[in-house]
Every structure is written in C-alpha cells, then in structure tokens.
Predict the structure of Ribulose-phosphate 3-epimerase.
Amino acid sequence: PPPVRIAPSILSADFAALGQEVRAIEAAGADWVHIDVMDGHYVPNLTIGPAVVKALRPHSALPFDVHLMISPVDGFLDAFAAAGADIITVHPEAGPHIHRSVQHIRSLGKKAGVSLNPATPANILDYLIDDVDLVLVMSVNPGFGGQSFIASQLRKIEAIRKMIDKSGRDIRLEVDGGIDADTAPLAIAAGADVLVAGTATFKGGPDAYAGNIRRLRGA
Ligand code: DX5
Ligand code: ZN
C-alpha cells in the first residue's frame, strides 16, 4: 500500500503561536500542513486568510495544503497561491464552475484539489478526475474541528479509490474530519492516503505531537 501522509489541521493549534506550532508539527513528523480557510458564509465559522498563510510560509518547508471553505472562491485563488499554498482545494458547492476553478489553480502552478461534503456523491468527480491532483472527502460537515467521524464516508472513499486507480493518474485521496487513532485505520483500509487531523494531532500540547502523529500512522 502507498505511504500514508499525515496533515495536521492548524485549526486546532494555538492561534497565538501559529509559527511555533507549525515548526513543532514539522519536527514531530507531520508530512503536510493543513490550513482550513472559512468565511462565515459558505461555512458558519471564520478562520484565517492569505495574510496568515504568507506569514507562516517561512516557518515550514512542508507542503501547505490549503482547504478553502469560502464562497465565492474564485476571486481568492491568486492570493492563496501567492501567499505560498502548494495545494489548493475547493468545494464544488462553493462556486458556479468547479472545473474552471480547478483549471485556474493549475494555471497558477499549484496542485488542485476538490472537496466533497458528506452528502455530495462521488460521481461529481466523473468529469473532474482527469484534472485534479487531490480529492478531499469530508468525513464531517465543514466548519468546525472536533466533530465525530461520519462512517458512511468510508464507502465513498472506497468508490473514489477505485476511480483514482482506474484513472491511472497520480492523485492523493485525503480524508478530513474526526480522524483519530480509531478511525484512521478505517480510512486507510478504505483507500485514503492522506489523513487530516486537528484535534488528534494537537491534543496534549507540543510534547505529545510526535506520539499523536505516530498513533495516526498506526505505528
Ligand atoms: C473542518 C475542517 C477540518 C477540521 C478537522 O471543516 O476542514 O480540517 O479542522 O478537525 P478534527 O480533526 O478535529 O475533526
Ligand atoms: Zn480541512
């Protein structure tokens, strides 16, 4: 099986010490930094914008995995690319033309992701799979950390794993929401190869991060 990447969501980090937190998770073995961007409109919560992504950029060499939960999203793609995002993921429900958004992200030289909410079917990918670098399956409704894993998403992950394998393309399959040491093995068995984890990474403070990340890997 492919190696599993761990992408801590800094939504659960100490916002007063974000630079330090990003350095700490890198030292603790994280593979990517997952950055949740929320606008209070597409989702009922507000987080951070491109200025914070830019400020964090010098603190880490890890890929910045920027998950945009904002609508309309297209007007912000250039700003997040310029701020230092490596992967930019958008929701099909958050704009009128998801294919155009994906094309735009790739035209900026960034990897493009598409994120599916719990009730969004896998077949929305039928005419996107040839143009994306990542599929993000939301295993909670977007907006907040600390929610419980929605088990029905496992069969969606299985279905998307098949689509990806059939495509023959190099596409990451990421799962986001309610991932902990109990749900991580289920998501991996279903075919996920990137695990986002906020609560499960940051609980216990910096001394616990390395052990938390190891447990997510199943080691
Ligand atoms: C939810 C975000 C997730 C969330 C994950 O909208 O996309 O990244 O922060 O948090 P946990 O791991 O606590 O469920
Ligand atoms: Zn996220």
